[in-house]
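R.M. (postdoc): so does anyone remember the format we settled on? I'll just put the structure tokens first.
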């Protein structure tokens, strides 16, 4: 089995501890064999030795909210539902490469089209195509005409929701995505309005849990968020309107928040001038301040926060994960908190923490090599020198 020894770097392990200077990391096959200080591991003849003096090592990033099939143009829904399935698939393959080159080695896809996302996941797992490993949600569970109906399974009432959820499980999804409220991109609905009822969502959660799957909810308005939490979901995506009661519920029930601050930010930055629908721009402007305030309150209260970008929404690029980290730091996170949200905490949310999310002996060797220390400047994550996946170097620069 191939052994690779990386030496001389500053190592950030993802567990929020002090970085290890002059670290040595021994990889055997796909996994980390040992981490120590330089000189504490004996170099053997058959080892490949990589000198990373002056560089920084950290776990590959885990993006908890991606739409791998969506192109971040002004109106991604319209594009995805009008182009051919072949082109959508090819777009997904190209987006996988973008994520990997940008240092994302694992992600969670929260809404595809025609179960193409499920097939892409199989292709990655089989080694047929190159990309990060990921969890796929298939079609989102939405009420008729509700947010995301273009890419979802529309259903109304308990038994329809039950059947819709079972259909996704049959298709091979890894996570169930439930639409609790309206959203920014769907015309004719408001972000704050509740959609699927508590009882309907509880049925979807029940079916997911029976199959050993976790659940995520698109939830922006307070009532819809509370309903989803009481229904038993594992994570709240966006969480724009969080009051004290809702935050307390999240802490008590161990519900994660995936804020996706980049999504409305990118819509506002692009504007109608770049083709974003006017209604989406206006909604984003109305909620941006509240979104940041909810994020700050949740963080201060101790809600577990996992990084997710909502990549694929308007001008929210698949290779710009660092933007979300910068925005979370604008909202009060330290650099270490931001890194942990995109490594260990994200792995725990996805249920993959046994093998991913931190650099420790026994875990899969997914990591990135940086020219600078991101704890000193988070934008160092925009200057990735190397990406390793399962112990193998897959890229040397983002331009490779």
């Amino acid at each position: 089995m191939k052994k690779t020894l990386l030496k001389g770097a500053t190592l950030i392990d993802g567990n929020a501890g002090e970085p290890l200077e002059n670290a040595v990391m021994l990889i055997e096959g796909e996994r980390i064999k040992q981490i120590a200080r330089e000189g504490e591991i004996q170099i053997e003849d058959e080892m490949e030795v990589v000198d990373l003096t002056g560089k920084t090592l950290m776990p590959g990033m885990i993006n908890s909210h991606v739409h791998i099939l969506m192109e971040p143009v002004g109106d991604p829904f319209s594009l995805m539902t009008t182009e051919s399935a072949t082109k959508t698939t090819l777009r997904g393959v190209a987006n996988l490469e973008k994520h990997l080159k940008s240092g994302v080695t694992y992600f969670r896809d929260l809404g595809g089209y025609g179960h193409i996302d499920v097939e892409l996941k199989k292709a990655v797992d089989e080694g047929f195509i190159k990309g990060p490993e990921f969890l796929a949600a298939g079609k989102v569970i939405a009420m008729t005409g509700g947010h995301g109906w273009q890419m979802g399974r529309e259903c109304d009432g308990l038994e329809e929701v039950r059947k819709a959820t079972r259909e996704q499980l049959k298709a091979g999804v890894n996570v169930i995505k439930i639409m609790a409220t309206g959203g920014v991109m769907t015309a004719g609905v408001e972000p704050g309005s509740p959609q699927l009822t508590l009882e309907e969502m509880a049925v979807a959660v029940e079916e997911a849990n029976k199959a050993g799957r976790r659940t995520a909810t698109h939830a922006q308005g307070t009532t819809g968020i509370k309903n989803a939490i009481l229904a038993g979901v594992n994570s709240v995506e966006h969480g724009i309107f969080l009051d004290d009661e809702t935050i307390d519920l999240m802490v008590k029930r161990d519900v994660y928040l995936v804020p996706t601050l980049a999504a409305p930010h990118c819509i506002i930055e692009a504007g109608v001038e770049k083709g974003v629908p006017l209604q989406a721009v206006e909604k984003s402007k109305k909620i941006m301040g509240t979104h940041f305030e909810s994020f700050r309150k949740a963080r201060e209260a101790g809600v577990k926060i996992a990084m997710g970008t909502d990549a694929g929404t308007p001008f929210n690029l698949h290779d710009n994960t660092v933007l979300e980290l910068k925005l979370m730091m604008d909202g009060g996170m330290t650099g270490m908190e931001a890194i942990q949200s995109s490594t260990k905490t994200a792995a725990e949310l996805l249920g993959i923490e046994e093998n991913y999310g931190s650099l420790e002996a026994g875990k899969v060797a997914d990591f990135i090599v940086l020219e600078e220390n991101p704890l000193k400047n988070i934008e160092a994550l925009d200057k990735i020198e190397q990406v390793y996946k399962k112990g193998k170097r897959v890229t040397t620069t983002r331009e490779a």
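R.M.: ...and that's the designed sequence above, right after the tokens. Also worth knowing: The longest helix spans residues 278-301. The CA atoms of residues 108 and 365 lie 19 Å apart.
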